[in-house]
Structure formats: structure tokens, C-alpha cells
Amino acid sequence: MASPFDLTGKTAIVTGASSGIGQAIAVALAAAGARVAGVARSSQDETAQAVKAADSDYLAIKADLATTEPIERILDETLRWAGRADILINNAGILRRADPLEFSEKDWDDVINVDLKSVFFLAQAFAKRALARSGGAKIVNVASVLAFTGGIRVPSYTAAKHGVAGLTKLLANEWAAKGINVNAIAPGYVRTEATQALQDDPVRNVRLLSRIPAGRWGDPADIGGAAVFLSSRAADYCHGTILVVDGGWLAA
Questions:
Q1: I need a labelling partner for 186 at 20 to 30 A (CA). Which of 35, 161, 211, 228 fits?
Q2: Is position 237 annotated as part of the catalytic site?
């Protein structure tokens, strides 16, 4: 009997796949048997090599999700390559740090466009294709522990991640009966380029570590297993779930 986590024969789209959490998710899905279409603004050579090392196929799609313009092309390129798309991982995101008293409208709009607006419209386009073939699908959005807390100096990011959590629940309500599972992962503090400033700040770093029961920063690979689970038939009865992977941060 096949493992309930087996993704053999499935095709996944992973946004923000060039590094960090997106790269780790792409590799984890590939190791579980999925073909992966990665979406990123920058080079995906490293991700492609890692996916191929996991004995799977990789399609690199260059696109900037700061606007909705490339969304249909992302789906079209994936379908031409693989014939279908079964899994969507909405991971692409950016972050701007500043005191709320000084936060600019541009920094607000830039983050909301990538971290929230593109999540909805890519999910919408993906779901339309999935419903047209009546084959069921999985959508996994990447939120954050800041979907549950406020954080500091990241107003647009916090607003976007709260939005992702709410959007995940709304789309689950809309599409669960149509055979599309919509869930999310809420990573805690993970060692990525986006958190480098916090890692390098001796005061914030110590404070963060003292709050994490696991006693360490997360690694991008820690998020991969959660993505495989929510993308697999093991999660067929999960709808609107926000799966927290934070080393115990929210429990502390």
C-alpha cells in the first residue's frame, strides 16, 4: 500500500522557490515524488539541482509576483510542461522593516501586493484550472506566526500574514466541497535571508532564542515536512488548517 504522503505523479507549483523556505519545500515535495515548477525572480539553478538530486523534474519559471501580470503565464507554462497542476504552494513573500510612524505607502503596497494580493489571485487562477479538470487539488499558503501576533517594525508584513490566514479559511469554506483543500503553514523564526537582520542583532537574537522552547532558530527544511503533509492525501480532511511550525514559540 502506498504511503499517504506519496506525491508520485503529482505536479506542484512553488512560488519563491529560489532560496530559503521555498527552496526547502520544493526539495521536500520532490523527495516525496512530485514534479516541481518553481517560480522566482532570481536564479533557480541551485533549487533545480537539488530537486534533480532528489530524482525528480524541475521547471524554472521566472516571474515577479509584485503584480498579477504573470499569473496566467505561470499556470500556462506549468500545464504545457506537465499537463496538469495538482499542488500550489503560495510561498513568495517580501518584508519591509520600519517604525510605523515612518512607514511609507510604497513599502506598504509592495509587501501587500506580493504577500497577499498575489496569494489570492494565483489561488484563484489555479483553482479555476483544477475545477475545469474535476481532479481535486491542494493549495498551501505560507503565513507566519505573525498571523497570530503583532511583531514589531513590520506593519505591512503583519497585516499581510493575518490576511493570508483569513484568506486560507475563506477559500477552504468556498472550495472544500469542490475537492480543493486550502490550508496554510505558519513558520516561526527560520534562518533565511529575510530574517538575517534579526539573526545579526545580538540583543534580538538572544531574546528570540530565549522565547523558543526548542532552543534554536528553525531551518528551512523544518517547513518541508509540513508542506508534504498538507499536499498529500494524508491531509484530505484538513480544510482551513493553519499548521504552526515554530519550535514552540506560540506555546511559550
A1: 35
A2: no
pTM: 0.97
Cβ atoms of 118 and 92 within 8 Å: the answer is yes
Domain range for 113: 11-245
Q: Given 58, 157, 189, 237, which residue is catalytic?
A: 157
**Residue 76 pLDDT > 90:** yes
Q: Which residue from 130, 136, 123 is spatially nearest to 71, judged by alpha carbons?
A: 123
| Model pLDDT for residues 160-186, shown as the tens digit of each residue | 999 999 999 999 999 999 999 999 999
What span, in angstroms and rounded, lies between the C-alpha atoms of 174 and 83? 26
In the three-class reduction of DSSP (H, G, I as helix; E, B as strand; rest coil), residue 140 is classed as: strand
Q: Residue 70: its pLDDT value, please? A: 98
**Inside any domain, residue 4:** no
Residue 131: which residues within 8 A CB-CB, separation 6 or more? Answer: 178, 180
Please provide the size of the chain in residues. Answer: 252
**Nearest Cα residue to 229 out of 52, 1, 6, 19:** 6
For the chain, the domain total comes to 1
